[in-house]
Amino acid sequence: MKKLPINCPSCESPLVVSQLSCCECDTVISGSYSLPVLLQLSKEEQDFVFEFILTSGSLKKMATKMEKSYPTVRNKLDDILEKINNLKN
Amino acid sequence: MKNLLLNPIEKYSEQKLLPTGILALLIGVSITYMLKCKFIGVLKVTFIDNASIEQSIFDSIIIAGCLTLLLLLAGKYIYSKTRLIDIIVTVLIGYIPFYLLTLFNIKDTIKITTEKLIKHATPELANQLPMDDLIIIIIFGFTSIFIIIWFIILLYNGFKTATNAKGNKPKIIFGIAMVLADIISRILIASLS
Question: What's the number of domains chain B is made of?
Answer without folding.
Answer: 1
